[in-house]
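[audit] Reproducing an earlier prediction to check determinism. Same input, same settings, fresh worker. If the tokens differ from the archived copy the diff job will pick it up downstream; this log only records the rerun itself.
[audit] input (217 residues):
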Amino acid sequence: MKAEFWIERWQNGQIGFHQEAFNAHLQNYWPALGLPAEACVFVPLCGKTLDLLWLRSQGHSVLAVEISELAVAAFFRENDLQAQITQEEHFSRWQCAGIDILCGDFFDLQAADVGICDALYDRASLVALPAAMRRQYVRHLQKTMPQQKPHLLVALSYDQNVIDGPPFSVEEAEVRELYAAFKGIKKVFSEDVISGSPHLQKKGLQHLQETVYCLQG
């Protein structure tokens, strides 16, 4: 899956993955990571998520990355934030009020870009990628954040013989394999949420398991 796929999704308004409120799992389980308020949080493949604002409201500085300039511009515009934009080698950096978004390809990130971060929040990154790219994604995270910083990870699992992603199905066994370098992988929430997705039920999907993991290095 190439970057152009997501750029086109934003251009065509195909952004059903975007949530118009703070994510409930973030609010409920973020404290379990035990981070100080001054911690810096990395949010990959962020879109225009309002969760950046929630993290900032907790005192955290936020560094995010997003491929679509439309999404980045929309985040600042829709939240009445005036971004300062500077050009770097691989990214344009949009900054305002303790939130930095690097507009460009996640796989161009270097350790120097995210080395300041103390934790990671992933609601829609891992599940946005097909299996081969998920491995590449985690390898690149380990390269740029080699100290296994705490993660809050939200994953989905379902029968991909019925429908295909994105979002893709990521089973617990795969999560544990991909993040095996972490000393602690704790499942803090798991529930069948298919009742909240009638459009998927119409396509024949009977189960949609949403699972939240806390990863500690």
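[audit] rerun output stored. Observation attached for the diff report: The domain at 3-12+22-216 is CATH 3.40.50.150 (Rossmann fold).
[audit] end
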